[in-house]
Amino acid sequence: xxxxxxxxxxxxxxxxxxxxxxxxxxxxxxxxxxxxxxxxxxxxxxxxxxxxxxxxxxxxxxxxxxxxxxxxxxxxxxxxxxxxxxxxxxxxxxxxxxxxxxxxxxxxxxxxxxxxxxxxxxxxxxxxxxxxxxxxxxxxxxxxxxxxxxxxxxxxxxxxxxxxxxxxxxxxxxxxxxxxxxxxxxxxxxxxxxxxxxxxxxxxxxxxxxxxxxxxxxxxxxxxxxxxxxxxxxxxxxxxxxxxxxxxxxxxxxxxxxxxxxxxxxxxxxxxxxxxxxxxxxxxxxxxxxxxxxxxxxxxxxxxxxxxxxxxxxxxxxxxxxxxxxxxxxxxxxxxxxxxxxxxxxxxxxxxxxxxxxxxxxxxxxxxxxxxxxxxxxxxxxxxxxxxxxxxxxxxxxxxxxxxxxxxxxxxxxxxxxxxxxxxxxxxxxxxxxxxxxxxxxxxxxxxxxxxxxxxxxxxxxxxxxxxxxxxxxxxxxxxxxxxxxxxxxxxxxxxxxxxxxxxxxxxxxxxxxxxxxxxxxxxxxxxxxxxxxx
Length: 535
Ligand SMILES: Cc1cc2nc3c(=O)[nH]c(=O)nc-3n(C[C@H](O)[C@H](O)[C@H](O)COP(=O)(O)OP(=O)(O)OC[C@H]3O[C@@H](n4cnc5c(N)ncnc54)[C@H](O)[C@@H]3O)c2cc1C
Description:
By secondary structure, the chain is α/β, with parallel strands linked by helices. It is built from 16 helices and 20 strands. The protein has helices spanning 15-26, 43-46, 67-72, 82-95, 185-197, 221-229, 231-240, 260-273, 276-280, 290-305, 311-318, 385-388, 400-403, 437-457, 467-481, 512-524, and strands at residues 3-11, 31-34, 102-103, 108-114, 119-124, 129-137, 159-162, 177-181, 200-205, 211-213, 330-332, 344-348, 354-357, 361-364, 367-370, 373-376, 391-393, 422-424, 462-465, 530-533. Strands 1, 2, 3, 4, 5, 6, 17 and 18 form an 8-stranded mixed beta sheet that branches. Strands 7-16-8-9-12 form a 5-stranded parallel beta sheet. A 3-stranded antiparallel beta sheet has the order 13-14-15, with no helix packed on it. A hairpin with a 4-residue loop joins strand 5 and strand 6 (129-137). The longest helix is centred in the C-terminal third of the chain and has 21 residues, at 437-457. The model has no long low-confidence stretch (mean pLDDT 97). Flavin-adenine dinucleotide (FAD) binds at residues 11-17, 34-37, 42-43, 45, 47, 52, 54-56, 61, 107-108, 138-143, 186, 386, 390, 425-426, 433, 436-438, 441. Residues 11-17, 34-37, 42-43, 45, 47, 52, 54-56, 61, 107-108, 138-143, 186, 386, 390, 425-426, 433, 436-438, 441 line the site of flavin-adenine dinucleotide.
C-alpha cells in the first residue's frame, strides 16, 4: 500500500484552509489540503441558496494578510452576496497559486494518531491513506448541515433541498408551491427571494426572531477608494476590539441611564446605520442587563411590526420568547415586508407543530399543506459537528467523539489534550463565530504557523495540550460568559438544535482582542501550557 507523506494535511478549502496552505508553505512545509466539495470557498461554495449573503461588511470580511490583495480587489456592495465572496475566494486561490495543493471531491473520513511514528494516518473517501506529521482542521464551524427527522420524509413526491447544499445550477421555483422550514439567519435571507419566484410560499416558523435591517447598498467609486485608503487604520481598529470589525462603537451610552427620548434617538441612529453591531452595540448594557435588554427588544419589535400590514401575522412574527441577542441576531432585507404579499403564508409551527411529511406536502397542526418543493433552512451541527463527523482517534485509540461526549474542550480552542499535532482552526473554546470569522481565522492560522516555526527551530516535533491547563482554560471560557445574556436561550450556539448534543456555550466570549493577547502570552512564554517534545 503506497502512503503519500506530508508535513501537514489541511482538512477543508474554505477561508481557513486556503490561508493555512499559504502560511504553511511559507515555513517550508509540504502541504496537502483535502476538500469534499469540488471547489474552494467552504461556506461560500456550499450555501448557494437565494439571498445568501454575509452580514459582516465586505471591507471587514476580507483577508488582511496581504495589503496588495486588499488594494486590488473591488467589493461592489456593503454586505457581499455568496457569488461575490465565492469569486473573491477563487481569486485568492489563483493569486496565491493554492489549487495545486488541494485535492477536491475528497473527504477525510478517518484520522488516527500513529504513536510509534509520531504522525497522523488519514483515510480518504477515495480509499487512500495519507501520512502527515501535523493535521490542521479547517473543517469550519458551520459545514455539517442539520436536517430534522420528520416522519414520512421518504414518501414526499416533490423536490427537497437543504439550503447549505443548494444545487449550483439553481432551482426553478416558478409556478411551484414551496415550503420553507426554519426562520434562522438563512431562512430570513432566503424567504424574501423565494417569495418572488414561487407561486406560493409557506413559511414554517418555530421561533419568532428579532431582525435588524441590513441597510445594504452598492459601493460607489468614492466609497471603494476610501476603503482602500483606510486599510491600515481599519486593521488597527479590528485588532483593538472584541469582534474584529472596524467602526466598532467606541464608548456607547448605558440605555438605562438615558431618558426615553435620547434612548430612542440613539436607537433610531443605529437602525438607520443598520447591521447587527449598530443596533446591538448601540448601548453598553443591553448585553448584560436584563431590563436594558428588554427595552431594546421592545424597540426592535416595534420597528419590525411597522413593516407588516396584517396585525394577526405581525403578532405571530413578533411574539418573541427570548431576549434580544441571546441567539444570533439576524440581519434581514425586506423580511417582514414579504409577509404583505398575497403569495406568502406564515405557519406558526410553535402552535401548529409540523406532524409529518406526506406524499403531497406537509401536515402541521392537523392541516395538510400541498407542496411541490420543500426547503430545509434548518442550519448546522455547529463548531464541534464537522470535527466529530470525522472518525478522529488520538492517543491510545481514543475517539475525539468520546472525549467530547459531555463537552468539547481544547486548550485555547486550538489543541485538545490527547490529540497531539492536531490544530483546530476556530475550534470550541475560541471566539470562533462570535467574531468576524475571517479575522479570527487569520489569528489562528498565524499562531499555528508561529508555533510550528518555534517547534522546528527548537527541535520539537510533538505538541499536546496539558490536560490540567485545558481544564483551566475551560473554566476561563465559562467565566468570560458569566453574566452575559448571550446564549441564555436554546439555539445552535448552545448545541441544543441537535438532538442529544450536550448543551453548552463553548466559545470564548471575552473578546477577540483579549483572546489574541492570551494566545500571544502563551507563545511568548515558550508555548506555556502545551507539552512540546522531540520524538
Ligand atoms: C450561510 C452562512 C453565512 C455566514 N455568514 C457569516 C458572516 O456574515 N460573518 C461571519 O463572520 N461568518 C459567517 N459565517 C460563518 C462562516 O462559516 C465563516 O465566516 C467562514 O466561511 C468559515 O470559513 P472556514 O474555512 O473556517 O470554514 P468553511 O467555510 O465551513 O469551510 C470548511 C470546508 O471544509 C470542508 N470539510 C469539512 N469536513 C471535511 C472533511 N472531513 N473532509 C474534507 N473536507 C471537509 C467543507 O466542505 C468546507 O468546504 C456564515 C456561515 C454560513 C453557513
